[in-house]
Structures are given as structure tokens and as C-alpha cells.
Design a protein that fits this description.
Layout lengths: L1 H19 L5 H8 L3 H29 L1 H21 L3 H29 L5 H29 L1 H6 L1 H14 L21 H30 L4 H29 L1 H18 L6 H16 L2 H15 L3 H30 L2 H17 L15
Helix pairs in contact: 1-5, 1-6, 1-8, 3-4, 3-5, 3-14, 4-5, 4-8, 5-14, 6-10, 6-13, 9-12, 9-13, 9-14, 9-15, 10-11, 10-12, 10-13, 11-12, 11-13, 11-15, 13-14, 14-15
């Protein structure tokens, strides 16, 4: 089990590293390719669109032939598209590569998590999911450093090394035994099962977390800049937030294993509601930076219960785990896109309090309608 956990963690770390490596490279591509702000936004958003489009096909692939082919396909796409970013000199080509990276990421995440959950003891499922997510968040910390190295050393040597890394991981994947579906499932397996309450709740928690992160990622840097923080200080706040979130994720998994998903979901909703409401009001950059750090901990608290609920819902309905994590990708891509769009649009038109207070209201509505106003809620029992 430890070897599989290390392998899955490595896959997710590498995937998120190259997902976040683009951020510091945007000025480079803007200068060399003449990208406007709109063009840079399209390049950034193409990953999420690719994940959205590729989520269900990735689940179908893994549910029919097993997780290993899905992972290997995702690693192959990562290797090929990284070469495009290293050597490409056309904006449309990079947009297409970024889109394919998102679709490939859907394959690696779906296959990896389905493989991990299929092998995991039920009593340790939350901890193992939390550890893998911690590795993914760690990749998000490494990505900007890799992008900065590519900006300094050149994109060709840095991104040219990605196929080598992908090939090494792929060799370990091929050498590791993985289960194949006893009864391969098709898309029709989702019919009727998609209404399972645990699946719906899990998807919503993942989407809600992605929306909250999307809003903060757009509005908080702009507000910190207006209050006097430079790029390094802004990056430091988000770096600290992600580092603490990565460290907290396995601990939340242990709590979910021992006490059920309800306490984790309840605490995350209450904390997120309070922090979302607090974000737009401080006039001090250090206070806003502290909210960024605390927000990462609160919003990141949705991942473990959300994924655990999706996994439990799949078990309960006989749905292949691959489809459960395909739904996760679908929820994340939708929530992240909606949060970023709503944060930028509503904040620009009506001011920051509108999107933040709307996010706080969503947390409150979720808390009440999901039955989390009392301990021991059957809606979020240990079996969920």
C-alpha cells in the first residue's frame, strides 16, 4: 500500500507542478508571442476547459479498461504538451496544448485516485486520499519555481526534461499490478446513480471549494497590490497558504477516518463562511494576507470530505470508482471556472463585497440544507 501511495502521490505532484508552472511564464509568453491580457487569460483558462471536457471520457476509459491505461495516457499527453511549451512559438498551438494538458490531467487524476481507493482499506481511505492531495498541493508549490527556472534558463531545457520524468513514472506504473474492472462500465452506469446523495454532496463540496479558491485567486492579489504589497509578498502569502494546506490535508483525512466526514465538512463550512465574509473589509495588506493563508486552510478542508463522499457514494451504488473521480474533475473544473469568472465580473461591476458575500451565503445555505446544523447528522454520517 505504501508503494502505491508513493506512486500516486508522485503522479499527482508532477501533474500539478506543470499545471502551475505557467503562472510566472505568462510575461515571457506575452513578450515573445505578443499575447494581450485576453490572450493570457485564454491560455490560463484552457487547462480548466480541457479538464471539464475530458473528465467524463477519462472516467469511461478507466471504468472500461482499468486505471493504468488512463494514467499512462495522461502522462503521455503531459510529456507531449510540455514539449510544445518548450519549443512552440504560436499562441494557438500553446492554447491547444494547454487544453490537452487539462484533459490529460483528468486522466491522471481519475486513474490515480481510483487505483488508490480500490486498494485502500476502508478505515484508511480518508487518510490516503488526504496524503495524495497533500502531494498535489506540494506540486502547486513547486510549479511557480519551475516556471521561474524556465524563464531564466529557457523553456526548452526545462520543459524538454518533462518527458524523461513522465517516462520514469510511467515505467513504475507499468511495473505495478493494478486491478481491472470485473464488469467494465459504460457511461450508462451513471444513469440513476448520479442522484445518489453522497455523490451529489461530494461533487458540491468539491465545486464549492473550487469556487472559493477561484474568487480569492482573482480578487485577493488585486486588493493586496492596491494596499501596497508587491509581487513577491503576494506570492509569499499564497505560497504559505498552500504549504499549510498541504500539511493539513493528511490530518483531515485521519479525522474523517476516525470520526466521519461530518466534523470536517462542518468545520470547513463554518470557517469558510466567516472568512469569505471577512475578506472584502480590511484596509491593511497584512490582514488581507492573513485571510489568504487562513482561507486556504478553510477552503482546502472541503477536499477530503468531498472526495470521501464521492468514493463512498460509488461503493454504495456499485459505480466504478473511476466515475466517482471523473465527477470530481467535472465539479472542480466547473467550480474553478465559475468562481474566477464571478469573482472578476461581479467584483469589477459591484465591488469585492458582492462576490465574497455571495460565497459566504453559499456556505451558509450548504450548512443548513445539508443538515449540518447539528452533530451526528445522518446526511453526513460516518458511512458517507
Amino acid at each position: 500500500m505504501r508503494r502505491l501511495l508513493l506512486l500516486v502521490s508522485a503522479i499527482m505532484l508532477v501533474d500539478t507542478t506543470f499545471f502551475t508552472a505557467l503562472t510566472p511564464l505568462l510575461p515571457h509568453y506575452a513578450d515573445t508571442l505578443g499575447l494581450s491580457k485576453t490572450g493570457a487569460g485564454i491560455l490560463t483558462a484552457a487547462f480548466g476547459v480541457g479538464t471539464l471536457v475530458g473528465s467524463i471520457p477519462a472516467g469511461m476509459l478507466a471504468a472500461r479498461v482499468g486505471p493504468k491505461p488512463a494514467i499512462l495516457l495522461g502522462l503521455t499527453v503531459l510529456a507531449a504538451t510540455s514539449l510544445v511549451f518548450g519549443f512552440g512559438a504560436n499562441a494557438l498551438l500553446l492554447d491547444a496544448a494547454r487544453f490537452l494538458q487539462g484533459a490529460g490531467g483528468a486522466c491522471t487524476w481519475t486513474g490515480s485516485l481510483a487505483w488508490l481507493v480500490a486498494e485502500a482499506p476502508a478505515e484508511r481511505r480518508g487518510q490516503l486520499i488526504g496524503t495524495a492531495l497533500g502531494a498535489a498541493i506540494g506540486g502547486a508549490l513547486l510549479g511557480p519555481a519551475l516556471g521561474a527556472a524556465a524563464a531564466s534558463l529557457g523553456t526548452r531545457p526545462v520543459f524538454g526534461a518533462v518527458p524523461v520524468v513522465a517516462a520514469v513514472i510511467a515505467a513504475f506504473v507499468v511495473a505495478s499490478p493494478a486491478p481491472r474492472p470485473a464488469v467494465p462500465q459504460t457511461l450508462s452506469a451513471l444513469r440513476g446513480r448520479i442522484r445518489e446523495p453522497a455523490l451529489v454532496r461530494g461533487m458540491w463540496l468539491v465545486a464549492l471549494a473550487a469556487m472559493l479558491f477561484g474568487i480569492v485567486s482573482v480578487l485577493a492579489p488585486l486588493r493586496l497590490s492596491r494596499l501596497g504589497f508587491g509581487a513577491a509578498a503576494i506570492g509569499g502569502a499564497f505560497l504559505l497558504s498552500a504549504g499549510l494546506e498541504a500539511a493539513l490535508s493528511p490530518l483531515l483525512g485521519r479525522v474523517a477516518d476516525r470520526r466521519g466526514t461530518a466534523p470536517v465538512a462542518r468545520a470547513s463550512l463554518v470557517a469558510s463562511m466567516a472568512l469569505a465574509f471577512a475578506f472584502p473589509w480590511p484596509a491593511n495588506a497584512w490582514v488581507v494576507a492573513a485571510l489568504v493563508v487562513l482561507g486556504g486552510l478553510a477552503f482546502g478542508g472541503f477536499w477530503v470530505p468531498g472526495l470521501a463522499m464521492l468514493s463512498a457514494g460509488a461503493d454504495r451504488t456499485g459505480l466504478d470508482q473511476s466515475f466517482a473521480f471523473a465527477l470530481m474533475n467535472l465539479a472542480w473544473a466547473s467550480g474553478e471556472g465559475l468562481g474566477s469568472l464571478a469573482g472578476g465580473t461581479l467584483g469589477g461591476q459591484f465591488g469585492d463585497p458582492v462576490p465574497y458575500c455571495a460565497a459566504a451565503a453559499l456556505c451558509l445555505v450548504t450548512f443548513v440544507t445539508a443538515g449540518l446544523t447539528r452533530a451526528g447528522s445522518p446526511a453526513y454520517s460516518e458511512s458517507t
